[in-house]
Design brief:
homotetramer; DNA-binding; Tetracycline Repressor, domain 2; mainly alpha
Amino acid sequence: MKKNKPKYMQIIDAAVIAIAENGYHQAQVSKIAKQAGVADGTIYLYFKNKEDILISVFEEKMGNFIEKLNELIAGNGTAVEKLLRVIESHFRLLSEDHHLAIVTQLELRQSNKELRLKINDILKGYLQVIDKILIEGIGTGEFPSSLDVRLARQMIFGTIDETVTTWVMNEEKYDLVTLALPVQRLLINGCGNVE
Amino acid sequence: MKKNKPKYMQIIDAAVIAIAENGYHQAQVSKIAKQAGVADGTIYLYFKNKEDILISVFEEKMGNFIEKLNELIAGNGTAVEKLLRVIESHFRLLSEDHHLAIVTQLELRQSNKELRLKINDILKGYLQVIDKILIEGIGTGEFPSSLDVRLARQMIFGTIDETVTTWVMNEEKYDLVTLALPVQRLLINGCGNVE
Amino acid sequence: MKKNKPKYMQIIDAAVIAIAENGYHQAQVSKIAKQAGVADGTIYLYFKNKEDILISVFEEKMGNFIEKLNELIAGNGTAVEKLLRVIESHFRLLSEDHHLAIVTQLELRQSNKELRLKINDILKGYLQVIDKILIEGIGTGEFPSSLDVRLARQMIFGTIDETVTTWVMNEEKYDLVTLALPVQRLLINGCGNVE
Amino acid sequence: MKKNKPKYMQIIDAAVIAIAENGYHQAQVSKIAKQAGVADGTIYLYFKNKEDILISVFEEKMGNFIEKLNELIAGNGTAVEKLLRVIESHFRLLSEDHHLAIVTQLELRQSNKELRLKINDILKGYLQVIDKILIEGIGTGEFPSSLDVRLARQMIFGTIDETVTTWVMNEEKYDLVTLALPVQRLLINGCGNVE
DNA sequence: GATGAATGAGTCTTCATTCAT
DNA sequence: TATGAATGAAGACTCATTCAT
């Protein structure tokens, strides 16, 4: 299993840095290799081609994150609390890794349709986490039984994504993690007055 | 003013078709020229470079749309009603133009950071429309005065965008315009039960 | 028709020189372009890819030669005389074009199987010329009716080819055209004593 | 002497198979090593470089064959008979080793000029065998004293080679050994009628 | 002797843009 | 205005060879 070799993760991490610092289209294989401290050809001992590096970046970084999320929402707590945890974790992950934030929110979106389809496959795991919370919340009566889960999921994911992207585009000038609570409240209560 | 010449819009429309049918990276200048029925060199009489075509595509198509939105929210009605009109208009615009939907939701996002910054400039007009509605709604008491306008705007825009993107990715299999009302209700009330 | 453009033949001729002087594998597209006095990209306005240049070299040079041979054997004369003309023409063509001789006898044989299959297709025209002579000779009684045309053709072509290759490998130190007559006699009478 | 070690021939035989099955340019050192059941690096304990393997293939296979030919023509018999034996042996050798036939007639010809010069050195031994027969034949009066030995040798070798190549290119669909006699007769008597 | 992970040089092709007509 | 032939820069990937174990 190649993934256990240290060079595998070494190249993955180098790719994140190279893409964040140079942009997606300027992150040539030779730059990634240099950043990783290996020869160009070594890349191809661990990855099939350049696209394979990029998919693996997403798989390793987001795949692990989604696993963590599943643990996070497995325990006790209301659906509303769990939603907060997910948003907070998401915001924290990207707050703590400047390079990763740039790569996932800006650079990797420049990839071609084929690559983005594979990225979407990975993201499905995230969407399922949101779905679980929603269904659980409907079960506990926290959310109305009339809630359209698909639409609600799109709202939650779209809001989180847009919030992070805006933050990255504003050069991360403000604290993102602090926004988790107000974002969650907004998602739970919407914009309307509760009278 | 070049923009008044007939070939200007001819090339813009050709670009939308060429990008939608071939994908962003396969929509070479020569393909756009062929689609527009002009010579490659003619493109450069109307546009500074390829990027300028793409920005102009967005400017013309979304710019006009934003103007229309401003008219739409200038008249009478509550903020809540106006939000519905915006969502409905947005969904209708893209439902009616298959090519434009693919281009704005999928293809143009593959452009480089620089181009996307310029696209974001244009989108600011859209975000201002949302802000106006939110501020108006706070004024009329429809929305709580504690509402964080920036976050609310990110939720509204993020949700609309995610909903449209999901619809395009699902090959537009279901009716998008019908979703305007439930999406608006979700944005107003959130996921939570109103007790 | 691209072939009427002057640059088409300009590139073909440049390819012959570049291959002859640098060897097949060292004749990079950029070298051929430089030799032809055009930009690298211009090559691709006239040829699909590098292989297409090489096939076209053979087509243009040998294709024309085979046409000439067909005229040569169409007129009057015995089959034996016509065979001499063919050998002489072949020897003269390559004697007069040093570069072409190297390319056809040595360099083009290094190409991959696919390319050589296409070269063989072109050569079939040559083999048909030999067949025509043989069949005519059998008709006139110059050759025995028991002659196996396929084997005889292989002898004739193999002998001519081997003679030219040996001459090129010996750096063309002796006169090739002079050998046409003794080679023809050998092919007609074989090694054996006629008693 | 490396050549006496069992792995030496093991690698030679693996090279013949690897080249025959994959083609000259697709027969990477690693494929040859795998076929031979040794590690890549082991190859370099027995051969200086890749070219050295290929030369050795020819040396071992054709070198041995030429020795056998020399024995074959040392004994009694006329020159004409000996020529038949040579052709028959040659045809039989390649008929019996499908892989070897492909390698010598098609694949090894794709090698670069340098390698082919070395191959030609080995082939000189073969050409000397033919020369011996021709000179002997002139001595016995079987061949005319006016025979140009160099040209006759080129005819004999060229004919044999072309016959074998055609047979390989036709996927060895017919029996090659049977052709030895008619080929010999053709070489002795030529195409002409003997009256 | 044997291994196999690591190296790094080398090239074809695309396509945005120009400019002579 | 309009044309379209010509330009030329730029990058992913392969594979023979080495050398520490």
